[in-house]
Request: fold
Amino acid sequence: MLAPGFADPVHDAQATFRAVMEALARPGLVRPLAPGLQPPAPLTPELAAIALALTDADTPVWLDPALAEAPAVAAYLRFHTGAPLTADPARAAFALVRDPARCPPFDRFAPGTPAYPDTSTTLVLALDTITEGMGLHLTGPGIRGTARMALAPLPDGFVGQLATNRADFPLGIDLILTAPGRVAGLPRSTTVTEA
Amino acid sequence: MYVAVKGGEAAIDNAHRLLAEVRRGDPAVPELSVAQIRAQMALLVDRVMTEGSLHDPDLAALALKQARGDVVEAVFLVRAFRTTLPRFGASVPVDTGAMAVERRISATFKDLPGGQVLGPTFDYTHRLIDFALAAEGEVEPAAEAEPRADAALCPRVTDLLARDGLIEASPMDEGAPVGDLTREPVDYPADRALRLQALARGDEGFVLGLAYSTQRGYGRTHPFVGEIRVGEVAVAFVPEELGFAVPLGRVRLTECQMVNQFKGSGATPPQFTRGYGLSFGQSERKAMAMALVDRALRAEELGEPVTSPAQDQEFVLAHCDSLQATGFVEHLKLPHYVDFQAELELVRRLRAEFEQKPEPVEMQEAAE
Amino acid sequence: MAPDPTGSAPDRTIAGRQAVMALCADADRDDLAAALEALGSPATQDLRAPETGLVMATGRIGGDGRPFNLGEVSVTRAAIRLADGTSGFAYHLGRDRTKARHAAILDALWQDPARRGRVEAALAPVAQRAEAARVQAARHTAATRVDFLTLARGED
Amino acid sequence: MSGTQTFPSPRARGEGRGDLVVDAASPQGEGEGGFPGESPPVPPPHPRLPPRFADDEVGETLSPQAGRGDAQRTTDQQSGYNFAYLDEGTKRMIRRAILKGIAVPGYQVPFASREMPMPYGWGTGGVQVTAAILGRSDVLKVIDQGADDTTNAVSIRRFFAKTSGVATTTRTAEATVIQTRHRIPETPLTEGQTLVYQVPIPEPLRFLEPRETETRQLHALAEYGAMHVKLYEDISRHGHIATTYAYPVEVAGRYVMDPSPTPKFDNPKMDDCPALQLFGAGRERRIYAVPPYTRVRSLDFEDHPFRVQEFTHPCALCGADGVYLDEMLLDDAGRRMFVCSDTDHCEGRRADGHVGTGDAI
Reply:
């Protein structure tokens, strides 16, 4: 039985978008995200909300192995979003990552082009925890001074990959980070360091 | 004693009420009906449908009435209405070869299968104002004749030429998705399909002027009218739920095939080249102008030097849309006093500085 | 679009159905209403409320080349279900929802071979009027043809 | 229109026009055509500006409830329209463009702009961005040339009231979304706010290079030499940089961006701004963004640093200086009066008791 989508498609999609917009505009700031969805496991409510709000027939979507193994996830996304699913990360407009610890290297995704850096992939990670005020140090557009954010679990060399991604600016991928009931953002413009 | 007030709102309301009254005009004169516009101003309706990029004669006629006959305003109303409707899909490409021809002429052959058929045309009328038309009166019924055996068979002139290899083939249909400039931002160089879509909905005046320029040396293409045909074609569409082509009805179209300067190389013998135009209704001038500009815009593709505006894709595509053009030209009437104040302040300052200096400013040694 | 007698049965049925659809598309609302009345105006239920939308009309570059988007046409669609469960569809140019609904009912009725004959009979006057109009138009057009040559053997 | 009849309730007036829903911007007759019967235009030689509500008639029309734009619930949204007019597919497309614009500050993101019921060049880009971000709990302010009551601001505010029913206000401080043309409010913006600019020509290099294919490459290579040359040529010819509005800025040290035709007077407000700034160009089909607390530097030279305009007179109504002023011509003998361009800022100061000289110069 296909799980339902947004109860109020127009306003739930808008609310989800605004949370993501604030999160990307103010890296390090964690926004509440309570979409009230029960998607088929292992798709999390937060990943589902962002997919329903932002993807459609014009946006190829890549699922990580954890999501790709569950046929119910693909059926749910196809029905509610009409987004074509792609096996090639380099062709994905959005990549849904249920298992961030095993997230493929960022350079597997589309970095955009010098003339059109907006054509890069947006990665949406389902983390266990996002905590403000501790952990990684963030600076750059959207941040007054510095911000701190702790993320778990992370793929190994996460900070190093972010540094490479930042160095390629304006090319690069952008990250939307989710945890139960929460969303945060790491656009390519953010500089992230351990200390 | 001056007090700030807010009068914008009321002024707008009153302006729109005045517009409604002025649009109606003298109440003693019977009100113009949409059906009259549709039937008796058909060519005007065709232009609004073509530039509005939405075939709906009743809607275009209503838009013309609402716009007091202003074509660009009517096109605007049609375009804005279009945005509110969902799209069910794309049609099966129409087959103009199977058109129920009402008018079909060729300038390249004296006679041809299906013949030269004038149809309802202003051609060869002497443009003398017919005062009899001022009085309502009966119209003499149209003449009739027995259609000749080959009347139903009207092959395209370009197909006839192509059979002998005399003209380049049309670009092949490899099933690639069709670009749509209403759905994706235009990127240059633009595919020919996108260019035809832009020209079809483009302002007739602009496209006509460009076409005319190619005839006067600005990108000459030695055009011949291979054929112009006007008539109805069946439009069909395959709904997901049925899986077969559903006939929607018939739509009048005007198609123009231009045969242009031949082109050949060491490897290939010379062939004539094509320019194509297609428009809603009986819009002959538009279809012809479109065909000329379509050919001119193929200069790069055919290895011809791009020297004139009509050959310049960005120039043509960026400026041919009447909505964008009228929007930005007319936006100058919007308040700009903040920006003008900024200019005013600078000009006053420069003039003040000018007074203080004995010799003119230019004489100063600028760091070259 | 008379059905092609040589096609296979399903093709012939689709072709037949398309012909009725084409006839209804070109007819006007009152014609269809009269036909339905003649057929007892069966009870129906909307599968989907009649809706006006757009279809992008495509042409071919050069008339016979790859497709391009010419512009949209307004289209109204209706989908109904008869009491016996047969579903009927209609897609027509323009914005007349009532007419589309009438045509969808006729489409459903036509799909039942038992009723097909009566549906086509009810639509016969519509077909005759359409044919007469087509012939009349062809005769007007023919009168404007420029004759250069007439075959000596008197064939005009 | 006699000046003193009681104003009909907006509902009655609105109903008569069928589709025209009166929006909150004109609660209870605020904008009901002012006071045609008001005192003759020629002010007494030494006009004394009346205290804020001294005159009953003024009081009745500018009463708080009708006056300083308290957030007003409007009639619920006109049926038949999708929320904020755009279909959901269009909103998604615009939302994706906004997110990428935020991620690449100052970069122009192409988007498939839709035809809107208002002409291109009259704010369709700003309207599409606002429509894509707007939510039921937002409070919307719309200004043109700094004022809520200019005709295009009224028209756009009415469009949103009709198609979304969101609350609208004329007070900068109360708004969560502000759509503006040609001005940045004088009142400093806060973290909870988003400023949406209407943009006619998004490409800062457009008047140096007409081709998009060229300018797209110049941005890709960060090749902005031509702009500096142009600015320097102004200096050699006029002794000053001649650009007074739409003054190019460099965002986050990378992209040169056109702030839209705001006077260069407003440029400093873009730098390190707490609010998110979004830019919509409908006819040119581009969306771009300046995230909060981002470096926005106006292009200049060491020997010719960026300077803003100064006004020689304070606002005649509220006495403010250091604000942008409109010049009102009073007669054909050259008498003029300078008043605040930002009407909300001016009204706020006057409500707080600030008084201008009220005289012409």
The longest helix of chain A spans residues 9-25. Chains A and C do not touch (no CB pair under 8 Å). The mean pLDDT of chain A is 96.
